[in-house]
Every structure is written in structure tokens, then in C-alpha cells.
Write a structure and sequence with these properties.
The complex is a heterodimer of chains A (about 475) and B (about 300). Chain A is an alpha+beta fold and about 475 residues long. Chain A has 14 helices and 23 strands. In chain A, the strands form six sheets. Chain A has a five-stranded mixed beta sheet with strand order 3-23-22-19-18. A five-stranded mixed beta sheet of chain A has the order 13-5-4-20-21. In chain A, strand 8 and strand 9 form a beta hairpin. The longest helix of chain A is centred in the first third of the chain and has 25 residues. Chain A starts with about 25 loop residues before the first helix and ends in a 6-residue tail after the last strand. In chain B, about 75% of the residues lie in helices and about 0% in strands. Chain B has about 300 residues and is an all-alpha fold. Classes of the chains: A alpha+beta (about 475), B mainly alpha (about 300).
Chain lengths: ~475, ~300
Amino acid sequence: MDFKYSAEGLFDEMFSHESKCRDHYQGYQQWLQAMSSDQFQQKQREADLLFHRLGITFNVYGEDAGTERLIPFDTVPRIIPSEEWANVQKGVKQRVSALNQFLYDIYHDKNIIKDGLIPEEQVFANEQYQPCMQGIDLPNNIYTHIAGVDLIKDDKGDYYVLEDNLRTPSGVSYMLENRKMMMRLFPELFSKHSVASIDHYPSLLLKTLKDSTPISSPNVVVLTPGRFNSAYFEHAFLAQQMGVELVEGRDLFVKGSYVYMRTTHGPVRVDVIYRRVDDEFLDPLTFNSGSMLGVAGLTSVYREGNVILANAIGTGVADDKSIYPYVPDMIRYYLKEEPILNNVPTWQCRKPEDLAYTLDNLADLVVKEVHGAGGYGMLIGPKATPKEIETFRLQIIKDPSNYIAQPTLSLSSSPTFINDGLAPRHIDLRPFLLTGAESHLVPGGLTRVALKEGSLVVNSSQGGGTKDTWVLEGATC
Amino acid sequence: MLSRTASELYWMARYLERAENTARMMDVAFTVSMMPDTNVAQEELSAQLKISGSYDFYRAHYEEINTHNVMHFFSLDENNPSSIYNCISYARDNAKSVRGKISSETWEAINVSWIELQAIKKKGKIWEVNAFFDWVKERSHVFRGSVYSTGLRNDAFRFIRLGTFLERAGNTARILDVKNQIIRHEQETESIEYYRWNAVLRSLGAYEAYREIYGDKITPEHVAELLILRKEVPRSIRACLEEINDILAAIEGEVGKSPKRLAAVQYSRVKYGDSHHIFVEIGLHEYLTDFLNRINAIAESIHSAYMEAV
């Protein structure tokens, strides 16, 4: 396929500024040139049809509630050379390790606060801080068994962490299904390129979950809110891949000091719960009393150490945007190392001088709600109309501590198949780190792509798509 | 296995079997309703509403019993809980809840039925009536075939098959009962009676079997004997009960003694039953009514033993 492609002003993953194909895309480009646009379109349609038939969908909330949608899948892979990946891997492990130590610390001795690195109220007044976790010792002191770290590249090609996801990060099923789809559509690509394998993720996940308890051969289950949840496909997929039960709150009950599941052979004890239900809904006795999704009494069993929850209760305080600015300091504090991955410079509007700077520079900044997620409730200054900026300004002034501001990073672009040719679209990357007795980062991750021209919002709820992510085993294809 | 999983698998299979049974009956009813005699057509359509137990519900929603209305009611009407549309949608909901417990091919079989059904529903009505019912039967074959050829032989497999055969046994009994009553109440010519019994056999896929076993002449006694007592006919009550009995016996554990006992007793009653006992000593209608009560008792007992909260 011959294509005219211009990613001027952007950092493109495939082409350098002189429109030269980068080394690690050379092999792919050769293959691409032999493909016709029609062939490509045909493959794209095939992918859509297969995803639909297989029911690899997500559920939509809000206006179209109850409908199932496909996450658009782009057949052009995002390729990462091995050396670059090695750095990402080190950086993610370092970061999550520090965040884990931070969680242990704030639920125990609170040294980081006593030493004045983080203001007390930022931690204890945070809604995500769970007092019920104070003084509780978890096996190996692990809070975040599964973490997803969102990475982007700026216009120079340097990695930045946009967000840490330490509660119930999702997307790993798409990482796995996207690879399966690519291998089905383009088997020849994989015989030519040495792409690192990712399909051992479910067995690593199971091992991580089993390692999280001192019990030998524990009974592991996946807890889902049910089939109406947006990530239900993933819950069912992971349970099935691991060969464990997928349970809902109503399948579990607490008796004595243990959790049991209701089976056709009577009650069976549960030792490890990979829960995809938020803290708030886990246990109506401790948290939201109206929750139908949880298990009454679960927290007390957990506190006694008779069941493991992955991730632990109360991890949300560490991935909150109000804590984010302190992560580089945490790394220095706990690990005595310099951060490998950059943090995006962040102005905290709760500080008067930061607020003043933010209000003066709204047109150039990205402003986010401290507890927001999914790309909602944010202002992208350079893309907003003057009217939108003014509306947002009023919101910030009303409640400054609810906002942070960051410079607009331009996100790297990747060639993406749009209509009948390739066009540059912005992407990010979410690799998944598993922390057990040892930690594992499967070589790959979920690459999300903003399909709208110029858009920086990659969230699937807002028109984002996904790509297969290739980590090469050598420097080039 | 989780109690909820057992329940979802069982109901998934029941709903799909129900969709297939409805398609089978409507396929034949449609043909009969095209006959020149309007009384016969009317009777045939009413019979379908009675068999499915939805006569009153239908009257509340439709003014007239005519072919078009009844076909719509049983195929795509979302208000009718036992329409084919709803049965397949419920089955797909169940399947989605337990997709990790069925093979990916079985899931795909159900999901594709549902996707294609959405497309049919969008058109508003079924245009090719027989083609639609053939499609339903075919999708049902694909489902069962995938279960049979890709499903692990474990309790998941057993609960799926239990759902299929319990639904099927009840359905065969209801068809026989309703048709038998209509025919006995009407003063009919022999040719119409022949037509009706012929329709029963065809809707249960047992026409060839009848010919093979009894030859040309169709008599009510032989039809009933075939569909109740003959073990080689796959939709006969005996064949269904044999499956139910075997499946329940294969489920390990102590909790299912009550459904196992009930099924074993009922299986023996049919296995050692004979036509004289059914037709002369008891009467077909009484026999079938009693049977339907018993099969319901087995279903309830399965529910409380395996599927309800501990």
C-alpha cells in the first residue's frame, strides 16, 4: 500500500521528523507496501465481524444504557523496540514498588507524612483513604497485585506517566484478544517478526493471586458486579482463562470467620478474591449500605486475614490525582532512587499560587478533576472554545481543591487505518504489572488510540479504539 | 459448580429448547392455518395458544386470532414472555453470565443467533414464515451440536442437558394433551383428523418414525404410544425421562437425592407403562395431566436441591 502520510509537528512512532521510517518499523513497512488498501479494508472488516460474533464488547452506561458496543480495533500495530521496553519495564516496576510502600506506610507508621513530604490532609481527608485498613498487615505487604500505568510520549518521544491505576485496572483482555485477532488476520507477520509473547498473562495472574496467600492450593475466584458492568467481558474472560469461578456478590456469603461460595455441592470456602468491584460496593456493612454487589461481612473476614482481596482495600488513595504530584518524591523517599519515568508537571489548584497560574494560562493547560476518570470532567485548553474555558474557569474558582492542571502534552501518534488509508492518530499505552512474590510486566500492554483527527482523548467511552502492542525481542523487526 | 451457574446453564438450555419447540409447532400450525377450511385454521391457532398457556394473555393484547397475529405473537413479540425473540434473548443473557463455563463455540452459537435475530427484528416482521422457523430449528441444532461436540463432560454439561430434556418432556406432553382434546370435542371428518395427527407428528419431528414403526394409517392411540412410550423416538416422554434420570444419577454429591428419586420413579412409570393402562384404565388426558404435575415436581426439586441459595 502506497500511502501519503504526514505527522508534522507530532512525535510519530513509525516515522521520524524527516518522514523516514524508524528502524523498528522497517520490516512492517515492507510488508505494508505489498498490501493493497482493499486488502487492508477487507481485513479490518473481518476483525470487526469476528469481535462482534465473539461478543468481545463493552457495555455502555448513560444514554444508551444496556447496549453493547465494540471497541474499535485498528489493525496497524504499535511497535516498541526492546531497549525502549526495558526502560519502561524498569520504570513501571520502580513506580509501583514505591506506591506499594506508600500504601503500607500510610496505613501503618505514616512516616512520609511525619517527615513532611506530603501534607497530612492530602492523605487522610482523601475519600479513598480507608481507615479500616489501618494497622492491618497483608501478606508480603502487597496492596496492588495488579496495576496498570498509563504512559504517553511527549513531542520529543520521552515517556511520561499520565496516571497510575491501582484499584481495578481494566483492559488486559483487549491486550490479549487484540493479539489473538492479529495472529488470525495476519499470521505471516508473526512468522517474520520476533514479537514478544503475551499469552502467559492469565497464568501469571493466577500465580500472583495464589502467591498472595500463605495457604497452599487456595481457592481463587473473580468477583464481578455482573453482566451489566462495562468490563464484564474482561471479568468472564479472565476467570475462564485462569480456570477459576466467576462469582457475583450473591454467590458468596460469610459464615463464622470465612467466606464461602454457594455451589451445587454445598458451601465451598474462598481464599483469594480477585475483585473487580470498587471498595465502596464491597461490603454493605462497612461501606455503601445500599450495595447489592458486595458481600456482607467481607471486610471483617479480610481484616482477620482469612481471605485475600486483590487489590487490597484502600489503594485508591495512591492513584488519586491529588497524590500523583508526589510520586517522584515517594520514589526518592522509599527507594532512594531517581525516578525513571517522568511525571507530568502538575499545578495543584488548592495552592493559591498554582491556582493563579492555572487561571492565567487556561488556554494552554489541561485541567482535570482530582477524582475524575475516563476522560470526563476535564478541560483541554488548546482544543476548547473561549466559552468552554470561561465556564470551566467558574467551576475551578468555585472549588479549587477539586482540580489540578498540567501542560498540554501532545501524545505521540501512530499510523492508523482511517477510511482507505493511513493517518496519524494519538495513542497512549497501559502496561499491566503483576506483583506477587516477584513482579512481572508482560511485554506489551493496551495501546489506546484517539480515532478522531487531532483528538487527545483515547478513552473507549469517548470514541477511542485499541491496537495490538508489539514489544520486539530485538532492536528491529 | 456455583449454584447460580447451574441455574443459568439450565435455563439457557430450557429457553433455547422452548424457542425450538415453538418454532416446530408454529411451522406446522402455519401450514395447517393455510387450509381452505377457516374453522380448522382458527382451531389450530387457538390450540397453539392453549399449548403454550398464553391464550388469555394473547386475548388481552390482540383482538383477533388470525395467522398474522399469532405468528407475530410467537415469533417477534417482545410482550410475549415465551416468544422466540424473548426465549433467545433470555438464553443469551444466561449464556453471557456463564460464558466461561461453556465452550467458546457454544457461546458463539448462541451469540450469533442473537445477533441475527436482532437483524430480523429490525425488519419488523418475519417475511418468510417457514424460512424463519427453519432458521430457529437450525440455530438450535447448532447450539446442541456445539454442546455435544465441544462441551466438557462435567456438571455444566449435565445441567445444560437437564434443561433441554425437562423442557422437551413437558412440551411433548402438552402438545399431545391439547391436540387430543380438540380432536375429541370436534365432529370431524377422517381426513381432518388425519391432518391434525399428522401435524403433531411433524411438529415433533416424529413423522418418519411413525411411518417406520406403524406404517400408513395414523391412529390417535399409536401417535400417543409413539410419543409417550417408545424409547427410540428422541422427543418421546420416555426418551426424555431416560435422559433426565441418567443425567441426575451422574451428578455427584449428596444434595440431589430428592430429584434423583422423583426422576427414577417417574422413569419407571413410563418405562413399564403400556397403552392399555394409559388409554383404558386412566384415560389419556388424566395420564398427561398427572405426568405434567410430576415433571413440574421434578423441576422444582432440581431447583431447590441445586440452584437455590444455601
